[in-house]
Amino acid sequence: MKRYAIALLTLPALTLVGCSNAEADPEPTAPNVEPATAESTPSPTQETSPRGNLMKEIGEPAGIHSLDDPSKNVVTYVVKGIEVDPVCTSPYAMAPENGHFIAIDMEVETAGEPGFTEVMYGPINVSPHSFKMIDAKGTTVNSVSSGPSYGCMEESETLPSSIGPGERVTGKVVLDVPSTEGVLVYNESIDPSLGWEWEIPQS
Fold it and tell me: Where does the UniProt annotation place the signal sequence (predicted)?
């Protein structure tokens, strides 16, 4: 079983099952297994949202580590900036379909093999479809991706959509949203219950 943990969230303990020999032995007892541990001790500024996601600040790392080595992240995400209504740089850029663009400036760093694939199963795919938005009224926006959101920035400025082991990449992910107030949510594809949220900055 592949094991992973998100910072400050505890996952259920794994259960080990023993094997009996040919003779009638007592029921084997599973040894105690420690549950997944947090990467650091919670502080007053590290809280969860009503959706159970970790709230993150701009520039604050978010990551997943393997239980085999909790001191090292298998993947680390850093949102370096969130820009509302950015200027598109692609010569083929179109107006947003939903009203506004939001550009998320990200850095993603992954561990090498074999640890990366043991936890993440394969390349990480980060795109507008990876995010959702909760507006200021608490309503989830149905879709934050569109043709114009994919075509807003030059390819050299966008985050690679597929990220493999032993990589460190930077770039922007552009969302197409109806409002500029609320929070942005990223849920990990290997387990949607693991996620982080960032408040959209207001100028």
Answer: 1-24
